[in-house]
Amino acid sequence: MKLDLNNLTIHQARDLLVRKEVSSLELTQAALERVHQVDSRLGAFITVTEGLALEQARRADRRLGQGEGEALTGIPMAVKDIICTKGIRTTCGSRMLENFVPPYDATVMAKLNAQGSVLIGKLNMDEFAMGSSTENSAFFISRNPWDPSRVPGGSSGGSAVAVASGEALFSLGSDTGGSVRLPAAFCNLVGLKPTYGLISRYGLVAFASSLDQIGPLTRDVADCALVTQVIAGYDPHDSTSLPQPVPDYSQSLIPHLKGIRLGVPREYFGQGLQPEVKTIIQAAIRELEGLGAEVDWEVSLPHTKYALAAYYILNPSEAMANLARYDGVKYGFSAPEAADIWQAMEQTRGLGFGPEVKRRIMLGTYALSTGYYDAYYLKAQKVRTLIRRELDALFDRFDALITPTSPTVPFKLGEKVGDPLQMYLSDVCAVSVNIAGIPALSVPAGFADGLPVGMQIIGKPLSEAILFRIGYAFQQATDWHKRTPHLEDCQ
Predict the structure, then answer these.
(1) Which of 182, 264, 326, 376 has CA 20 to 30 A from 481's CA?
(2) pLDDT digits (tens, 9 = 90+) for 195-212
(3) What ranges in 323-448 are assigned the alpha helix state H?
(4) 121-148: average pLDDT
(5) How far apart are CA 272 and CA 417, in angstroms?
(6) Is 155 a catalytic residue?
(7) Mean pLDDT throughout 59-73?
(8) What is the pTM of this model?
(9) Taking every pair of C-alpha atoms in the chain, what is the biggest distance, in angstroms?
(10) What torsion do the CA atoms of 408, 413, 415, 421 make, to the nearest 10 degrees?
(11) Burial class of 407 by CB neighbour count within 10 A (0 to 12, 13 to 18, 19+)
(12) Is the dihedral of CA 92, 179, 202, 345 positive or negative?
């Protein structure tokens, strides 16, 4: 029976490489062939690095042949196009940076390169990570492999599509308000938003600096733990990096939940939650109970209802400040004809940024302007403190909280583009995690009308090991994560 090289987990591929039953070159060629077969339809990749990937695969095979391989040596992967890659363009899904080639690697890329992983390419995204559907890319939309008429989530939509469709064995995305977890849920993958500071942001193009984090998207929890193990850790290049040792996450991968206490916040199961999603998540929680967890179904987080409003003040305010650097002078797009420097800056930003980026710049400018700062930005920061305190209090009682990752299944392409508020509501289950700087893991929990549903596991700071334990035990008892999309409609 011929091996399906495109739908292997990392640990399966690693075993095959060690036993010399397959080579990194074969894995890489299979990934590139899948890109050629389906990506013109799915739109996962902005840049495919075919020549580099084949050379990296050959180098990996030489290392493996000498018994020198590490956990990710020879594994084909891809990264969101907001993560800097030396000598390879990094566009952020924007015309502003369409031809920008970084002179250095992000820390996460340096770590993956040191492992000998194989870069297939850079992945499509909402422009500057601003969006929930990957419809805001300046270049093209991405489509969900489970139903190409639907969105894959955002902003790391390309990162999810690449793994779900077998174009890479894992990917990296960034999560500012659900941008790893939402695509993971919509594409039947595992996605981690880590504790703020666990994974270096050095080389991650800034969107909202107090919220952004890099996270992996993988086929199962064991893979997610493995990738996190490699890319986590203190980095002196990042002033927000935590000087904490990284635990051995593999030790937490045990198949039961005895002694684990779980809370179910009622605010995540109210108005706006699709009934089918509610039924699936409740069934998943009962599965966790069957695995030995103690579950309290009557937990409350009263300030959750203010989280989305606070997020959409903090997020645009930080974005406005970070995007001020794109002035047509230092790097990136520059308007070709202008009478003076002010007109050049206006034309550069007017032509270089898309409508969603401009919308958030205007929202942030308003929130930080004289006379409105106290009423909006300062109040949002106070709400942030209340949300964090409320969560801290619950984590004195519980090891983790369980919620839906998204209130709905993947929605139709174009369904919410004309209504920014409805699009923002897609993030309602995710944003509190970023506001509080805590970790959350999305795992496949079932299907509604043939479309994936994700369960979110939220923990206190630096509790990734517990999240992996819960997710791993759930996956030992279920097979939702093993299901893959039929790609006939995508070829």
Answers:
(1) 264
(2) 999 999 999 999 999 999
(3) 341-352, 355-368, 379-395, 420-424, 431-436
(4) 98
(5) 18
(6) yes
(7) 96
(8) 0.97
(9) 70
(10) 70
(11) buried
(12) positive
Residue found by looking up tokens 């600096």 in the block:
209
Active site residue 460: no
Q: Given 80, 111, 193, 460, which residue is catalytic?
A: 80
- Is there a catalytic annotation at residue 209? no
Q: Tell me the two tokens of residue 469.
A: 């334990």
Report domain extents, the chain. 5-255+478-490
Q: Report residue 388: phi and psi, to 5°.
A: -65, -45
Report the candidate in 420, 354, 412 with the shortest Cα–Cα distance to residue 140.
354
Annotated catalytic residue, options 117, 155, 174, 426: 155
DSSP 233-295: S--TT-TT----PPP-GGGG--S--TT-EEEEEGGGGSTT--HHHHHHHHHHHHHHHHTT-EE
Tell me which DSSP letter residue 413 carries: T
Instruction: Say how many C-beta atoms besides its own lie within 10 A of residue 227's C-beta.
Output: 30
* Model confidence pLDDT, tens digit, residues 241-299: 999 999 999 999 999 999 999 999 999 998 899 999 999 999 999 999 999 999 999 99
Q: Please, are residues 184 and 144 in contact by the beta-carbon 8 Å criterion?
A: no
Mean pLDDT of 382-388: 97
pLDDT of residue 383: 97
Give the tokens for residue 259.
């002694």
- The conformation of residue 70, written as its DSSP 8-state character, comes to -
Q: What is the pLDDT of residues 406-430, one digit of tens each?
A: 999 999 999 998 888 889 888 999 9
CATH superfamily of 5-255+478-490: Amidase signature (AS) domain (3.90.1300.10)
Strand ranges (E), 414-476: 440-448, 451-458
Structure token pair of residue 72 = 């990710």
Ranking 140-144, 168-172, 173-177, 366-370 by mean pLDDT, the lowest is 366-370
CB atoms within 10 A of CB 381: 15
> Which of these is catalytic: 156, 165, 179, 334?
179
For residue 403, which of 284, 231, 244 has the smallest C-alpha distance? 284
**Three-state SS across 317-343?**
HHHHHHHHHCCCCCCCCCCCCCCCHHH
Closest CA to 13 of 73, 79, 78, 80: 73
440-448 and 118-123 strand pairing = unpaired
Query: Which is nearest to 157 in space by CA: 183, 181, 139?
Result: 183
The token duo for 2 is 């011929």
Beta bridge partners of 204: 83
Give yes or no for residue 395 having a pLDDT over 70: yes
What mean pLDDT is reported for the chain?
96
Q: What percent of the chain has pLDDT over 90?
A: 92
